[in-house]
Write a structure and sequence with these properties.
Blueprint: H1 2-14, H2 20-36, H3 41-54, H4 66-81, E1 99-102, H5 109-122, E2 128-130, H6 139-149, E3 153-155, H7 172-190, E4 194-200, H8 207-217, E5 220-226, H9 235-244, E6 248-252, E7 260-262, H10 265-273, H11 276-288, H12 294-303, H13 308-321, H14 335-338, H15 344-359, H16 363-367, H17 376-386, H18 390-408, H19 418-423
Parallel strand pairs: 1-4, 2-3, 4-5, 5-6
Antiparallel strand pairs: 6-7
The protein binds guanosine-5'-diphosphate and magnesium ion.
Length: 424
């Protein structure tokens, strides 16, 4: 998708005059791309109509950058489609919360609920996993194994609500009806604070109907889209939001426990539009990175080699520029985690703390992109040198690994030449 949308926008940027025809051509191209990316037909049509309403070419005063306005309109429209207007339930301190995971077989429930528990455990919560899947043979053992590996409490109780003796296991339709019935019963018995719908991103155009079917049976409150690391094109996320009127909260990006990211609408849409993390990102770089440092930063980005020293320099930039308008926050997955909104003061203190620790590192450590270098004795030395706790140094290194992974996604991306930078 990224490719063809950015091509469409590129074609538009090559046209000297942007009139009705150019806009229509561009919208048609984007429509095609969105459909290919598994966004439901009706959603695409709605978006097209809305854009035409918003962008009134006659109203655009001469001298305005029409391309930018159109591009911004598309961007905003897609963001709006991913925002159901109400936030998802988040657990409250000091209270037990029940989260129920639902989804078709193989969508990634077992994997995802472990990731979800692991994620919260790292943040100081005390999660526990309970198996309520009586459908799939081996579901209990699979979850237990996952939980053991991640050192998450596993409650042995197996929920058996209702009886599926009467449910015929042959015939796909009957089996699905039985699954939905069982799901309703589990939901009634456990009274979950949040029902999380887990959806495989590779199901294509089926996303909308599937999400809707689940929403009709249980009170879905949030969506997690899995297997975003594969060939899936991501459009299903838009359909799932539209069908469930619930936000996407996380995405799964691999089979491992830590391949799990907080879902952030804007970077996702940027990625969907293929303009990158780039268009906005480039603008920001031009805005906030000193001119003489820009080529070097871009070079480093395209090499994908993220060192602790780069992280240090980026933190310096962030602190200099204040919480808003940071270069780094344009990267997907960055801002939501490291600098959550409304907690800027804390975030800045954290960056400063991280930098103190990095001040206690050797040049070799700062310039290496090999995390294996960081053995226990080095970590201990850094902790002592900076007067911080061992745990904090490890946390900082975790953060580094996470950012390195995001950074590496930029690898090989074409660095725009001077003229191109402002074209998009
Ligand atoms: P369930 O039947 O809904 O419980 O699905 P599972 O959790 O057993 O997952 C089905 C398969 O998908 C397993 O092989 C998982 O390893 C795999 N899987 C789950 N999430 C992801 C993901 O985000 N990326 C990739 N590549 N594989 C995933
Ligand atoms: Mg399972």
């Amino acid at each position: 998708l990224g490719g063809s949308i950015s091509r469409a926008l590129q074609q538009m940027s090559n046209a000297t005059i942007i009139d009705e025809k150019v806009l229509n051509d561009c919208l048609n191209e984007i429509t095609r791309a969105l459909l290919q990316s598994d966004v439901q037909f009706k959603l695409v049509r709605d978006m097209q109509t809305n854009i035409k309403k918003i962008v009134n070419l006659d109203d655009l005063a001469a001298g305005h950058n029409k391309r930018k306005i159109i591009q911004q309109a598309i961007f905003n429209e897609l963001c709006k489609m991913l925002d159901p207007g109400k936030p998802s339930f988040t657990p409250k301190k000091g209270k037990t919360s029940v989260v129920m995971f639902v989804g078709l077989q193989g969508s990634g429930k077992t994997t995802t609920c472990t990731k979800y528990a692991f994620y919260h455990q790292k943040k100081g919560w005390k999660p526990a996993l309970v198996c309520a899947d009586t459908f799939r043979a081996g579901a209990f053992d699979q979850l237990k194994q996952n939980a053991t590996k991640a050192k998450i409490t596993f409650l042995r109780k197996l929920y058996r609500v209702g009886s599926c003796k009467n449910c015929s296991r042959s015939g796909r339709h009957k089996q699905e009806a039985a699954l939905f019935e069982e799901m309703r019963q589990v939901s009634e018995a456990t009274k979950p604070d949040l029902v999380l719908f887990v959806m495989d991103s590779s199901i294509g155009q089926a996303a909308f109907d599937q999400a809707q079917a689940f929403k009709q049976s249980v009170a879905v409150g949030a969506v997690i889209v899995t297997k975003m690391d594969g060939h899936a094109k991501g459009g299903g996320a838009l359909s799932a939001v539209a069908a469930t009127k619930s936000p996407v909260t996380f995405i799964g990006t691999g089979e491992h426990m830590d391949e799990f990211e907080v879902f952030d609408v804007k970077p996702f849409v940027s990625r969907l539009l293929g303009m990158g993390d780039w268009s906005g990102f480039m603008d920001k770089i031009q805005e906030v990175v000193p001119m003489d440092q820009q080529p070097e930063l871009l070079q480093k980005l395209s090499e994908g080699n993220f060192t602790l020293r780069i992280m240090y320099e980026q933190f310096q930039n962030i602190l200099k520029m204040g919480p808003i308008g940071q270069v780094f926050s344009m990267l997907p997955g960055f801002s939501a985690e490291l600098m959550p909104k409304g907690r800027e003061k804390e975030s800045q203190a954290k960056l400063k703390r991280y930098m103190t620790m990095m001040d206690s590192m050797t040049n070799e450590e700062l310039d290496s992109s090999n995390p294996k270098l960081m053995n226990e004795s080095r970590i201990m030395r850094i902790a002592r040198g900076s007067g911080r706790h061992l745990r904090e140094v490890m946390e900082m290194l975790e953060e580094y690994k996470r950012l390195a992974k995001i950074w590496s996604k930029m690898k090989g991306l074409k660095i725009p030449k001077k003229g191109e930078m402002s074209a998009l």
